[in-house]
Amino acid sequence: MSDKQYRLGLWLRDAHAMEQQAETMLKAQSSRLEHYPELRARIDQHVRETQSQISRVEECIKRVGTDSSALKDMAGSLTATMQGLGGMFAGDEVLKGSMASFAFENLEASGYLILAVAAEEAGDQQTAAVCREIMEEELAMASWIKDHLPDLTRAFLSREEADLTAKR
Known about the structure:
single chain, mainly alpha, Ferritin, 5 helices, 84% helix
């Protein structure tokens, strides 16, 4: 195995752990959204996309001849669970969660761009294509959040002003 292939395998394991973390965070966020049905529906859709991404990354990991890191997956899941629990106490959870999701989706997208280039350099065009495909899914979610943040902010402020539950 070349150095490039070895590095690609390590980064794919990191991506797998990151997707496990994303799934946990998204599910926690969705479970607490009561008054923002459009956001909840989009998050639920992205949970399904994330589950598909996990499967596709697992296939890439197998193709390069390594396996996922159970320790990293567990650590990522624990971190996501703690982040999800922490958001429960924020008075403006829906907005802070959306901000965090926007940042995280862009982080994931940049990671998949790096993975795509690394896969190309390692001669693995199939993994490169998968990573570019996942990158586009992450960018689409980030774009959706960006496009909907103004309306989410207005809805939050309106609910808060009317003394309705606004945080979630």
